[in-house]
Amino acid sequence: MKASNSSTPPSIRTLAALRASGWKSRTVKEELRGNFQQALAQAVASGQGGASSLFPGIVGYDDTVLPDLATAIIAGHDLLFLGEKGQGKSRLMRTLPNFLDAWLPYIDLPGCPVHEDPERPITCAGRELVASTPPESVPIAWWHRSDRYAERLAPGTKFADLIGEIDPAKLAAGTSMGAEEALHFGLVPRMHRAIFAMNELPDLDELVQVGLFNVLEERDVQIRGYPVSFDLDVLLVFSANPSTYNRSGKVIPQLKDRIGSTIVTHYPRERDIGIAITRQEAALDLGGDHPVLVPPFMERVIEEIAVTARRSQFVDQSSGVSARFSVSNWRTMVASARRRGIQLGERPAVPRISDLAHLHASALGKLELDLMGTHQMGERQVIDAILAEAVGTVFQEYVDQHGLGAIAEAFSKGVRIEVGELVPSAQYAERLRALPEAWDKAFEVNASGDPAVRASCAEFVLAGLWADDKVSRVVKHGRTSYEVK
Predict the structure, then answer these.
(1) Geometric angle at alpha carbon 16, from 15 and 20, rounded to 5°
(2) Is the CB of residue 364 less than 8 Å from the CB of residue 379?
(3) Please, are residues 140 and 15 in contact by the beta-carbon 8 Å criterion?
(4) What is the CATH number of domain 15-264?
(5) What is the rounded distance in angstroms from the CA atom of residue 367 to the CA atom of residue 314?
(6) Which of 37, 62, 140, 380 has the smallest C-beta neighbourhood within 10 Å, fewest atoms?
(7) What pTM does this model have?
């Protein structure tokens, strides 16, 4: 019998009724494998595709990470997700309970620290109850899959937290130290018949790693030398950053060797995939009372900033540049445009390059500088350099280089253009009257009659000229001046 998929647990309440229903005991890995294979077969039969359809919200891993993960689940392996920060490792780990039975029966034994398998109890109390009590009197309760997943961050985690400890209160009450009842179980044994995930494995104390090695190797737990072996049924899942996981001495070799599959994650390999992830994670409503219209070139600039940072010589690449970097920048850009829309009464508000001046607030702290390099740049300067390169890259994709020389020459004759985040869109046409070539170039970016869109396009052209080193730029108090170099 398969457990019900409803939000209400099955009505079975005794071991006799459970056996009569046809329920069969499975290990957590067998359960995960069986349900995943069934879901995969159903997805293929319904034309939804392969493994990618089974992991909603995971974007950009269809041909790389997800096939490896599917294979590892079917293989019945403990897992390690290896990748830089912000690559969705935790999100992938948290999808695994979706492939567990909706409800799992266990012996309803008061005070028992684990959810005992009705057919294979591991504690003395559980085994004694099943052996000495008629099946009609063995009580059964149900455990929902949402509760069968526990996650812990490695830094600061102690042996007692994960594995367990002798309970001094029980000793004081007269329980013998050699009795099973004297033990206080940690998270791992309490997740018997479930999934336990450990984030940032290399930061876990070596003593605790040894304890996990014992769980992986023997599937048991021993506490303070107490000679008892619990036949634990648990799927162990880990995450780690390559720079620390591969560093000698950070993870004991025996633990590495016992992890069944290493699933290597990565940053988006195409900008459009990165944009899709950023939109999804930002989860912003661009409508409402104060709507925002984001031009495609502004989306690309935001994502190209992250792409540029991930290859920048000024950024410590071993630390990575998280997807949260792009998400925070996207939200800041939209918020700045929305603030302008409210203050100036523009509907919809359209983000401009000048809105990106606020990215310092959302980007600071999310980049680790390469302190081993020869540069003497601070974090704000690095962000400015990355922003300039990103704008230049997207600008070259949008604007025909023919005619840019004429615009630069016009600047050399004393033309000075001032724009800014709080300059009304309707004023841009007047401000660029002295530079009609730049105004015309804005049509190449987006041929729109909306003044707010045109203002955004015009700023993009001016910023592109600056990024291309054809004009200079001065930013001060929310105003940006473009003039001759």
Answers:
(1) 115
(2) yes
(3) yes
(4) 3.40.50.300
(5) 10
(6) 380
(7) 0.88
DSSP β-ladder status, 261-264 and 79-82: parallel
Other CB atoms closer than 10 Å to residue 21's CB: what's the count?
Answer: 12
d(CA 107, CA 193): 13
Q: How many contiguous H segments (helices) and E segments (strands) does the chain have? A: 20, 12
Token pair belonging to 469: 């080193």
Tally the C-alpha atoms within 13 A of residue 230's C-alpha that lie toward its C-beta: 31
- DSSP H or E run through 98: none
Q: What are phi and psi of 105, to 5 degrees?
A: -75, 145
The identity of residue 419, as a single letter, is V
Alpha-carbon span 198 to 19, nearest angstrom: 35
Distance of alpha carbon 178 from the chain centroid: 44
Residue 468's nearest CA partner among 482, 447, 454 is 482
In this structure, are residues 305 and 387 in contact, taking their beta carbons and an 8 Å threshold?
yes
- Can the peptide bond before residue 105 be classed as cis, meaning omega within 30 degrees of 0? no
How many whole angstroms from its chain centre is CA 9? 31
User: How many other β-carbons are positioned within 10 Å of the β-carbon of residue 278?
Assistant: 24
User: How does DSSP classify residue 14?
Assistant: B
485 residues of the chain, pLDDT tens digit each: 444 556 799 999 999 999 999 999 999 999 999 999 999 999 999 887 778 889 988 999 999 999 999 999 999 999 999 999 999 999 999 999 999 999 999 999 998 889 999 999 998 889 999 999 999 999 999 999 999 999 999 999 998 888 877 766 665 665 555 556 667 788 998 999 999 999 999 999 998 898 888 788 776 666 666 655 678 899 999 999 998 998 878 999 989 999 999 999 999 999 999 999 999 999 999 999 999 999 999 999 999 999 999 999 988 888 889 999 999 999 999 999 999 999 999 999 999 999 999 998 998 888 888 766 656 788 888 999 999 999 999 999 988 777 777 777 778 777 888 898 889 998 988 888 877 777 777 777 877 778 999 899 989 988 998 898 888 888 887 788 888 76
> In 3-state terms, what secondary structure has residue 71?
helix
Cα–Cα dist 265/80, whole Å: 10
Distance in angstroms (rounded) separating the CA atoms of residues 364 and 422: 23
Phi, psi of 287 (to 5 degrees): -100, -135
Domain coordinates in residue numbering, the chain: 15-264, 271-483
